[in-house]
Amino acid sequence: MDRMKKIIEHEHPLNLIDLQPNYPLYEEKYDDDDDDNGSGELITRQNFRCRRCDRCREEINWFHRYYYECAHSCDYLLHKFCGELCITLKHTSHPAHTLDLFFLTHTPYWCFCVLCGRNEAVGLCYYCSGCKFIIHGNCAITSVEDRLIYHPSHRHPLAATPKPHLSQCNACGKKHEGTFYICTTCFGLFIHSDCAFLPENLMIQNATNDTFSHPHPLILSYSFPIKDQEDQYHPNCRVCENGFFKRANTWIYKCEKCRYYAHIPCATSRGTENRLLIKNYEDSEYPDLLHLPFPDESYSIPKHTFAKLVKHGTFGADEGNDGVKHNFHPHPLVLVSTECSDTTSTPTSSKTNVLSCHNPMKKVQLLCNACVRPVTSVPFYKCVNDDCNFVLHEWCTQLPTQVEKYPGHPKHTLILHSNAPDKFLSVFKCDVCLLECNGFVYSCVICDYHIDVTCSFMPQNITHEAHSGHHLLSRSFEKEHDGYCVICKSYIDDFQCSFACDTCEDVGVHVGCALLLPREIRHKIDKHPMRLSYLPAENHKSEYFCEICEKELNPEKCFYHCYECAWSIHTFCAPHILQSETSVSTDDEYHFLEGAYKYVNIKFGGIHKFEPLRHPHPLSFVQGIESDGKCTTKCRDAVKYRPILKCQQCKFVIHFDCCRHYDLFDDGDDDDDDDGHDDGDGDDGGDGDGDDDKSSDEII
Known about the structure:
This protein is mostly beta strands. Among the domains are: about 1-20 and about 45-145, no CATH class; about 200-270, no CATH class; about 515-575, no CATH class; about 605-665, no CATH class. It has a 6-stranded mixed β-sheet with strand order 23-33-34-36-37-35. A 4-stranded antiparallel β-sheet has the order 1-2-5-6. A hairpin with a 4-residue loop joins β21 (about 250-255) and β22 (about 260-265).
C-alpha cells in the first residue's frame, strides 16, 4: 500500500494515515479514576477530529480507517478512495468518450447520475462535457475494496451497497431506506449508514434537545449481552421505558456508572415521538387531581380527604371535662395539643407513652387505630387510659359511618366498624389493595367484603412521578389487559384493583405502591432523609444492597436511597427498624411482596388469651424477630418478620396464621385495655352497638 501520494490540484505530497492500526481489536473503556468533577469521560481510542475531504466535501470518519493528509501541514485531506481516483475514466456506461474527474472545492454540486438515477449534491463526479453525461464519483468506483469501512462493531471490513434499498438495520433493529454497509464475509449483516457513523459518545440532552438529560456522556456499545442484561435486572430504556428483550447484538448507548441505557433511536431522537412526554389530560378538567407520591409519612388519603372538615379542638357534642366519648372505643378520649415528649420505651410495649409522636429516628412508633398511618404531629386524640394505645388522627374522627355505591362493591352499602366482623384479632385482608389490616374497616357482612380506610376514599384519578407525571392514571377494579406496576415492576394480577394508564396499555400502579409509599422517609440507619427511587442512582459504582436485610437490591424496582451516603433499603424493609430487631439474618425463608411492606396496615400490640392452645400465660400480638426462633406448632417455620402471638414470660411463640386456623379464639377473655380495640363491647357486625343505625355522617 502506497504511503505517499501526489495529486495534481495540490502542490505538496500527501501521506497515508491509518486511524486503526490495531484493527480489528476494540475495547470499550472508561476512565475509572476518581476525578474532581466525576465526569468519567470516555478514553478516546484515536486523536482524530472528523474533517471534510477536500475533493468530495464529505466527512472523513474514523471508520474509514485510511485517509491522506498533506505532508507539509496544509490541513489538506482526502479520503483514501478519493485520493486514488483516476483523473480520467473510460466507463462501460459511456464507451464513446473519456470522462473527466470534476470536483468543486467549496460548494457541492447538484447533478443527476445516469447510473444510480439520483439527483444529489456531490463534491465530485465524472463528466463528459460534450454529451453532458454525469456519473457520481461514488458510483464510478468499481472495486468493492474502495468502498470499505473498518467498523469496530464487526471483525470484518464492511462494504457500502452500490444502490439504496429498504432493509432492517442490525444495529438499531429498525427498518431504513438508503445506503447500507454489509459484510461480504458474513451473511445477513446490514448496518444503515446513519447508524454506522453514530458518535462514539454523546450527551443525551444535546441529542434530544434537552427532553432527557444525564450528567455523563453515553458511550456507544455494539452489543448488550444477555448475561449483562440479567446481571442488571433486565433494565429498560430510560427514554421510552421499553425493554431490550434479550437482544444481545442490538447497539445501545449506555452509562455504566449509573446503569443508564437507551435504544439508539431513542438516544438520537430518531425514534417516534415518545408517548410518555404527551400529557393526556387538561389541568382544567381535573382541578383537584392528586399528584403522588405523598411528600412524607405525615400525608395520607384520609388526611387529604377529611382534614379540611376538622375544627381544631372540638370533637363533638359528647365532649366533657373527663374527655370525649367515641362510639368505637369504651374509654374517653382527650385531645393532645402540646408538643410530644420523648420516650425510651419500645414501641411494642403496652406501656408506650403515646405522647411521643411517630419518630423512626428514635424507634418510636405511633399509629392511628383508624387508618393505621403514623401520627407524626399534634393535635391528635388518645385514650385517657395510659395502658391503652388507642389513638386517632383528628381527621379520622370525621370518617362517615357508611359508604354507599362504592365502585368496587356498588350493590351494598359498606358500614364502618372499628373491628372487622368475624375476623380473628380483627385482622382482615383488604379486598382492594390485598394487604392485611386491623384498622377501621368498611364492610359488607353479607358478601364478606372488607376494605380499609385508605382504599375506601382513594380518588378515581391520580398522577404519579414514577410514570413521568404527564399521564393520568385512572382507578380500575378489573384489569382489562396485561400490565405491570411502574413502581415495584411487579405484575398486576387479573381483577386486582390498580391505577391504569389509558395511553400506555401495559402500564399501571398497584394501589398500595401508589398510596402507601411516600416520596421521603426518615430512618434510624441514616441521618439524612431517604428518597423513593425508581431507577438506579447516578454515580453509584458498587452493587446495591439493602442496609437492613443485607440482601441484594434490584435498583430497577422502587427502593429508598440516601443520595448523601449512597445507602439503600428495600421499600418493604423500611418499617422493620421500628420493631425490636437485634440482628439481621440473610438466610430467612420468609419472602416479601414487592413495593409496600406486607404488614404496613397492621398495628401490632395487645395482650390476648387463647384457651385452645392451653398456654398458661397471656400472649402479645407482635412482629417476630430472629431471636424468637420458630413457631411452636408443628409447622416449625421461622417467625422472623411475621405476625405472631408471643409469650413475654416464656419462649412460646406461634404464627398468627397458625393460631387463626384454630378458629376458636375466646373474645371474652381479651384484655381490651391493652389492644385498644373494643372487642367485647358490641361491634360485631351491627347487633346492638348503634353504629349501623347511626344517621350522622361522622362517627363521633
